[in-house]
Design a protein that fits this description.
Helices cover 76% and strands 0% of the residues. It has 310 residues and is mostly helical. The radius of gyration is 20 Å and the shape is globular. The N and C termini lie close together (6 Å).
Length: 310
């Protein structure tokens, strides 16, 4: 196992590789979630009618750059979020398991879920301003706008304007929703990944390698999407609002369901699935490889006394 710093770096690199591939689906997902915001179903216009229609419409009107709006902020956020999630998960799990069972190798589902949620929430809080500006950049369209529009030139311009107009509080608008959303996803992502991996090895006799990593990641990604999508919709709306359209997470949830119906919190689910499956597969599969690479590098540079402790 790599050091905490090494695991943080490996996790962040893996996530950046994944987000490069999946960012266009994230853009479509956000626009679907904001489409028809606080409008009854019969009155809401359907500018984007699904995953592939959304991709096609954005490409036609805005070109490839429209699909990749906010990619710079996404890279920073992924480095922070997944660096924390993948970097601190195993340390937390081992520490809590050792404290409870006196043996860090014991596998406890409850401890695994707690460790996943805690590491994810830590990363979400630290990276919240970057996800905020990313969401606002992705929602902006000069051709088919949905939700509140923010005409930021880029991520730096967005952060400067939010900080200047709203202060620190503005930069951390919606952080509660972000922590809930990421806590939900992180609580199941790594535990289901390692659970699936152990079961595939035990029952199908799969060997360590890309096929095992791919299969385990696919199972994890599907579970993550099912659990995380409702708070993800709430977070997108909280981030994109200006003023006080929503006073908090539960106010946003209540207004959304009351005005648009219960299924409104699952708007953009297919786009989310199209994004989260390859993202989880790539993140976790790449994390296995980057962790090995970082570990080999650490073996070369770390003194023997340090290596004995990790």
């Amino acid at each position: 196992m790599a050091t905490t710093t090494g695991a943080f770096i490996a996790g962040g690199i893996a996530a950046c590789g994944a987000v490069t591939v999946t960012h266009p689906f994230e853009t479509v997902k956000i626009r679907l979630q904001l489409q028809g915001e606080l409008q009854s179903k019969k009155d809401a216009p359907r500018l984007y009618r699904g995953v592939f229609h959304g991709v096609g419409v954005i490409l036609k009107n805005e070109g490839p750059s429209g699909l990749f709006r906010g990619i710079g902020a996404a890279y920073v956020y992924q480095m922070i979020l997944n660096g924390c999630r993948l970097g601190f998960y195993e340390q937390l799990r081992t520490g809590v398991t050792t404290a409870i069972f006196k043996d860090g190798n014991v596998q406890s589902l409850g401890v695994n879920i707690f460790s996943g949620a805690a590491s994810g929430m830590l990363g979400a809080a630290a990276g919240s301003p970057f996800f905020l500006v990313k969401t606002r950049l992705q929602s902006f369209s000069p051709f088919l706008p949905v939700g509140t529009q923010h005409g930021y030139k880029n991520a730096v311009d967005g952060l400067r304007k939010i900080g200047g107009n709203e202060g620190i509080k503005g930069l951390y608008r919606g952080v509660g929703a972000a922590m809930v959303r990421t806590g939900f996803g992180s609580s199941v992502q790594l535990p289901t990944y390692f659970f699936a991996k152990r079961r595939l090895v035990r029952h199908l006799d799969m060997q360590e390698g890309p096929a095992l990593h791919l299969s385990s990641s696919a199972v994890s990604g599907f579970v993550v999407c099912c659990v995380m999508h409702p708070p993800d919709t709430i977070m997108s709306r909280m981030y994109n609002q200006t003023g006080n359209l929503y006073s908090g997470v539960f106010d946003c949830l209540f207004k959304t369901i009351k005005t648009e119906g219960l299924l409104a919190i699952y708007k953009g689910f297919n786009a989310h699935l199209a994004r989260i499956l390859p993202h989880t597969i790539l993140t976790l599969s790449l994390a296995e490889q980057t962790n090995k690479l970082v570990r080999r590098m650490e073996d070369r540079v770390l003194p023997a006394t340090v290596k004995e402790k990790i």
